[in-house]
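Narrative of activities, Objective 1.

The group set out to show that a structural description can be obtained from nothing but a protein's sequence at a throughput compatible with the screening campaign. Below is one input-output pair from the validation batch, recorded exactly as produced.
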Amino acid sequence: MTMSGDHVSIKGCSPAALSKDCSDIGTDNVLYTPDSAMNLLSVSRLTESDLDVLFCEGKAYIYKDGKPLMAVKAQNGLFPLTADSMRDSAALASAPKIVDVSDLVLVPAVAGATDAQ
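Output recorded for this entry:
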């Protein structure tokens, strides 16, 4: 069902990659909906496929193993995937670095402690 309440007919389901050039970006259970005006990607499906997605300063960045694979600029509140966005090397070069924080240890603040001045 769409945001407007319309129903969309699903004609099939299969694994897919976004393009031959970006075969690292793929997911299972892609729904084929020929009557849809555009293709949509589920962020949760991307993250379930071992990809990371970062939304920052009007762009969406898709990473695999910390390496930026795609940078997509927002247009009217959506992030349209195009062949150009998959090959935008300048946008990829400026992608924020992802830091693995899984090994960090959080230390609770001590009550009554103040910052050194």
